[in-house]
Amino acid sequence: MKRICVIGAGCSGITTVKNLLQAGLINLVCYEQNDQIGGNWVYAPHESHSSVCETTHIISSKKMSEFVDFPMPDDYPDYPSHAQLLRYFQAYTKHFGLSPYIQFNTKVVKSEKTPDERWLITLGDGQQERFDYLLIANGHHNVPRHPEHLPGNFSGRYLHAHQYKTAAPFQNERVLVIGAGNSGCDCAVEISRVAEFVAISTRGAQYIVPKFFMGKPTDTFNGQMQWIPKPIAAFLRQLSLRIQVGKYSDYGLPDPNFPVLKAHPTVNSELLYKIRHGKVHPRPAVSSVEGKQVRFVNGTEEEYDTIVAATGYKISTPFFAPDFINYEEADRVPLYLRMFHPDHPTLAFIGLFQPQGAIWPSSDLQAKLVANYIAGRWEMPTNVAELAEQDAAHIDREFLKAKRHTIEVHAHEFERALKKQILKIS
């Protein structure tokens, strides 16, 4: 009987276990380094594997985020909190009977491919296990990427958004947040409630998208526009944002000169409000730091007590040898359907993509496909290498060139591609 290893019991890992069981594949072990399921949604008030903070809520709406076969509770709000999300994943795990297959407090420290296309897994206690298939679901929001351009020596406090948990320590401080992505905007907004002065530094233009449009979650409208011709849909997105927001330059932010879906959107209803109320102050890119003085590219200088770098995360697979698979600094990640590696037919990644929407429904589809592949009900194409390169080239065309976009996908388009293959399951 084929033996399967799953690494990680976060949201992608638990749906992988569920789909393997539904495909009749019970000879499996899911290794989780923490003491419970949930991955990034297990909040801790101190620095940990998780990147969520005290006030984190999801940025995709409930109905667009839930697993198709396990709806979120009716009493959940449109944008649930991290605590509600964790309870949801715990309920999912209980409902589908997944816990007996998850080994907690167990870290995978090494994963080696053997000549017979199997996998030798070394655990934190030195124990070794062999598997026929290896499924990676360890997430990609836990290893911070620090600013590339921060020359000089800052003598104040420096931290990455991954380390930010609550606004309380910033009471009466002058704080600079670097980065206007979702984490950066959340940090700036929350810290502005207690700090003396908060600024947010941006290197380039970015769309700040409100969470609601005409009284409904914004992503529900984007879902309705997936059937509209792309040029018309792009025009409507631009028009709706102009009606809601106006010009970003009116807020002291650079105006984007690219289509809305060309970059990963920042979904935040409070940042622009805080800017216009004088609680958050836009700043250009940082050119240098010296002591507590920060110089910006426009020549201005200001003093700050703390810098919070909200500059994203690296793709981390620490259990692989660097010369085997290493996407940490890669400009391209050529995987077929964002999961299958051309050289390793017994390996698959689940959740190694960044959707413009929720990750969980697509992870569920990926898991369903790989489970049926292992069960022999779906056949891998013979030209996987070519298809993987096509996937990577599609990302290059669709999104702005940036490390944060190497695994970006349009959620609805991506799900259609997965469903097309699922229809071929025999």
Structure description:
By secondary structure, this protein is an alpha/beta fold. The chain has two domains: 4-143 and 313-423, 3-Layer(bba) Sandwich (FAD/NAD(P)-binding domain), CATH 3.50.50.60; 146-309, 3-Layer(bba) Sandwich (FAD/NAD(P)-binding domain), CATH 3.50.50. The chain contains ten helices and 23 strands. The strands form seven sheets. Strands 3-2-1-7-21 form a five-stranded parallel β-sheet, covered by helices on one side. It is globular, with a radius of gyration of 22 Å. It starts with a strand and ends with a helix. The model has no long low-confidence stretch (mean pLDDT 94).
Low-confidence stretches: none
Which superfamily, in CATH terms, is the homologous superfamily of the largest domain?
FAD/NAD(P)-binding domain
Mean pLDDT score, rounded?
94
Number of strands: 23
C-alpha-based Rg, rounded:
22 Å
Please state the structural category. Answer: alpha/beta
Q: Tally the helices: what do you get?
A: 10
Main pleated-sheet profile: 5 strands, parallel
Please state the overall shape, judged from the principal axes of the Cα atoms.
Answer: globular
Distance between the termini: 20 Å
Tell me the helix content: 25-40%
Main location: endoplasmic reticulum
Organism: Haliscomenobacter hydrossis (strain ATCC 27775 / DSM 1100 / LMG 10767 / O)
Protein name: Flavin-containing monooxygenase
Subcellular location: Endoplasmic reticulum membrane
